Amino acid sequence: MENDLKKNIFRNTITNYIVLFWTMFTGIFTTRILFLELGSELYGFWTLIWMVFGYSLLLDFGFGISVQKYTAEIRVSKDYEKLNNLLSTVIGSYFIMSLIIITITIVMVPFLDKIFTIESVKNIEYFKKIFMFFGVGVALIFPLGAFNEVLKGLLRLDIANYVKFV
Protein backbone atom coordinates (compact mmCIF):
# COMPACT_ATOMS: atom_id res chain seq x y z
CA MET A 1 0.00 0.00 0.00
CA GLU A 2 2.83 2.40 0.87
CA ASN A 3 4.62 1.66 -2.43
CA ASP A 4 1.42 2.43 -4.34
CA LEU A 5 1.14 5.76 -2.54
CA LYS A 6 4.78 6.61 -3.29
CA LYS A 7 4.33 5.64 -6.96
CA ASN A 8 1.16 7.71 -7.18
CA ILE A 9 2.80 10.77 -5.61
CA PHE A 10 5.84 10.41 -7.88
CA ARG A 11 3.69 9.96 -11.02
CA ASN A 12 1.46 12.93 -10.13
CA THR A 13 4.45 15.15 -9.36
CA ILE A 14 6.28 14.31 -12.58
CA THR A 15 3.21 14.86 -14.74
CA ASN A 16 2.49 18.17 -12.95
CA TYR A 17 5.98 19.42 -13.80
CA ILE A 18 5.74 18.22 -17.40
CA VAL A 19 2.43 20.03 -17.88
CA LEU A 20 3.77 23.16 -16.14
CA PHE A 21 6.83 23.37 -18.40
CA TRP A 22 4.80 22.51 -21.51
CA THR A 23 2.28 25.26 -20.69
CA MET A 24 5.06 27.79 -20.09
CA PHE A 25 6.84 26.86 -23.34
CA THR A 26 3.73 26.94 -25.50
CA GLY A 27 2.52 30.15 -23.85
CA ILE A 28 5.77 32.01 -24.50
CA PHE A 29 6.18 30.58 -28.00
CA THR A 30 2.57 31.20 -29.03
CA THR A 31 2.49 34.72 -27.58
CA ARG A 32 5.61 35.67 -29.49
CA ILE A 33 4.25 34.34 -32.78
CA LEU A 34 0.84 35.93 -32.30
CA PHE A 35 2.26 39.29 -31.26
CA LEU A 36 4.63 39.47 -34.22
CA GLU A 37 2.21 38.17 -36.87
CA LEU A 38 -1.20 39.53 -35.95
CA GLY A 39 -0.62 43.22 -35.39
CA SER A 40 -1.73 45.23 -32.41
CA GLU A 41 -5.50 45.28 -33.03
CA LEU A 42 -5.90 41.57 -33.75
CA TYR A 43 -3.51 40.59 -30.95
CA GLY A 44 -5.37 42.87 -28.54
CA PHE A 45 -8.71 41.36 -29.56
CA TRP A 46 -7.48 37.77 -29.10
CA THR A 47 -6.02 38.68 -25.70
CA LEU A 48 -9.28 40.33 -24.70
CA ILE A 49 -11.30 37.31 -25.83
CA TRP A 50 -9.16 34.94 -23.76
CA MET A 51 -9.50 37.21 -20.73
CA VAL A 52 -13.29 37.59 -21.04
CA PHE A 53 -13.87 33.88 -21.35
CA GLY A 54 -11.19 33.14 -18.76
CA TYR A 55 -13.28 35.10 -16.29
CA SER A 56 -16.22 32.85 -17.12
CA LEU A 57 -14.42 30.21 -15.06
CA LEU A 58 -15.48 32.22 -12.02
CA LEU A 59 -18.97 30.84 -12.66
CA ASP A 60 -17.65 27.60 -11.14
CA PHE A 61 -18.55 29.08 -7.70
CA GLY A 62 -16.23 26.57 -5.99
CA PHE A 63 -18.17 23.54 -7.18
CA GLY A 64 -15.01 22.00 -8.63
CA ILE A 65 -13.19 22.02 -5.30
CA SER A 66 -16.30 20.55 -3.65
CA VAL A 67 -16.35 17.72 -6.18
CA GLN A 68 -12.68 17.07 -5.47
CA LYS A 69 -13.23 16.99 -1.71
CA TYR A 70 -16.31 14.77 -1.76
CA THR A 71 -14.80 12.41 -4.32
CA ALA A 72 -11.82 11.90 -2.02
CA GLU A 73 -14.14 11.32 0.97
CA ILE A 74 -16.39 8.93 -0.92
CA ARG A 75 -13.35 7.04 -2.15
CA VAL A 76 -12.88 6.03 1.48
CA SER A 77 -16.53 5.69 2.58
CA LYS A 78 -17.65 3.96 -0.67
CA ASP A 79 -21.00 5.84 -0.63
CA TYR A 80 -21.29 6.05 -4.42
CA GLU A 81 -24.94 7.13 -4.31
CA LYS A 82 -23.86 10.33 -2.55
CA LEU A 83 -21.19 10.94 -5.20
CA ASN A 84 -23.74 10.32 -7.95
CA ASN A 85 -26.12 12.87 -6.42
CA LEU A 86 -23.35 15.42 -6.01
CA LEU A 87 -22.08 15.02 -9.57
CA SER A 88 -25.60 15.22 -10.97
CA THR A 89 -26.19 18.47 -9.11
CA VAL A 90 -22.86 20.00 -10.11
CA ILE A 91 -23.13 19.01 -13.77
CA GLY A 92 -26.72 20.31 -13.81
CA SER A 93 -25.49 23.61 -12.35
CA TYR A 94 -22.70 23.74 -14.91
CA PHE A 95 -25.25 23.12 -17.66
CA ILE A 96 -27.28 26.11 -16.43
CA MET A 97 -24.10 28.22 -16.39
CA SER A 98 -23.42 27.08 -19.96
CA LEU A 99 -26.85 28.29 -21.03
CA ILE A 100 -26.13 31.64 -19.37
CA ILE A 101 -22.78 31.91 -21.17
CA ILE A 102 -24.38 31.11 -24.55
CA THR A 103 -27.18 33.61 -23.92
CA ILE A 104 -24.75 36.38 -22.95
CA THR A 105 -22.59 35.59 -25.99
CA ILE A 106 -25.54 35.73 -28.40
CA VAL A 107 -26.78 38.98 -26.86
CA MET A 108 -23.32 40.60 -26.99
CA VAL A 109 -22.36 39.68 -30.58
CA PRO A 110 -24.49 42.33 -32.37
CA PHE A 111 -23.13 45.04 -30.05
CA LEU A 112 -19.50 43.93 -30.09
CA ASP A 113 -18.27 47.05 -31.90
CA LYS A 114 -20.00 49.24 -29.30
CA ILE A 115 -18.82 47.24 -26.27
CA PHE A 116 -15.16 47.09 -27.35
CA THR A 117 -13.19 49.76 -29.17
CA ILE A 118 -12.58 48.32 -32.63
CA GLU A 119 -10.79 50.68 -34.98
CA SER A 120 -10.95 48.65 -38.17
CA VAL A 121 -14.50 48.26 -39.50
CA LYS A 122 -13.37 45.59 -41.98
CA ASN A 123 -12.52 43.20 -39.11
CA ILE A 124 -15.83 43.49 -37.24
CA GLU A 125 -17.44 40.43 -38.88
CA TYR A 126 -14.32 38.39 -38.15
CA PHE A 127 -14.41 39.54 -34.51
CA LYS A 128 -18.08 38.63 -34.20
CA LYS A 129 -17.48 35.12 -35.55
CA ILE A 130 -14.54 34.56 -33.21
CA PHE A 131 -16.47 35.91 -30.22
CA MET A 132 -19.39 33.57 -31.00
CA PHE A 133 -17.01 30.63 -31.48
CA PHE A 134 -15.33 31.26 -28.12
CA GLY A 135 -18.61 31.78 -26.27
CA VAL A 136 -20.18 28.57 -27.56
CA GLY A 137 -16.90 26.67 -27.07
CA VAL A 138 -16.57 27.75 -23.44
CA ALA A 139 -20.22 26.89 -22.81
CA LEU A 140 -19.78 23.41 -24.26
CA ILE A 141 -16.59 22.70 -22.33
CA PHE A 142 -17.81 24.14 -19.01
CA PRO A 143 -19.80 21.08 -17.79
CA LEU A 144 -16.91 18.75 -18.60
CA GLY A 145 -14.79 20.43 -15.90
CA ALA A 146 -16.41 18.26 -13.23
CA PHE A 147 -14.70 15.16 -14.56
CA ASN A 148 -11.26 16.71 -14.15
CA GLU A 149 -12.11 17.41 -10.51
CA VAL A 150 -13.26 13.82 -9.99
CA LEU A 151 -9.88 12.61 -11.26
CA LYS A 152 -8.13 14.92 -8.81
CA GLY A 153 -10.31 13.64 -5.96
CA LEU A 154 -9.38 10.08 -6.91
CA LEU A 155 -5.69 11.11 -6.74
CA ARG A 156 -5.29 10.50 -10.47
CA LEU A 157 -3.73 13.83 -11.33
CA ASP A 158 -1.58 12.02 -13.86
CA ILE A 159 -4.63 11.25 -16.03
CA ALA A 160 -5.91 14.82 -15.67
CA ASN A 161 -2.44 16.08 -16.65
CA TYR A 162 -2.28 13.77 -19.69
CA VAL A 163 -5.59 15.21 -20.89
CA LYS A 164 -4.40 18.77 -20.23
CA PHE A 165 -1.11 18.10 -22.05
CA VAL A 166 -2.86 16.77 -25.14
Molecular structure report:
The structure is a single chain. With 166 residues, the protein is an all-alpha fold. The protein is built from eight helices and no strands. Helices cover 83% and strands 0% of the residues. Helix 3 packs across helix 7 and helix 4 runs antiparallel to helix 6. The model has no long low-confidence stretch (mean pLDDT 85).
Give a short overview:
By secondary structure, the protein is an all-alpha fold. The protein is 83% helix and 0% strand. The longest helix is centred in the N-terminal third of the chain and has 37 residues, at 2-38.
Main sheet specs = none
- Give the CA-based shape: flat
Segments where pLDDT lies below 50 for 5+ residues? none
| Strand/helix succession | HHHHHHHH
List how many beta strands DSSP finds. Answer: 0
Distance from first to last alpha carbon: 30 Å
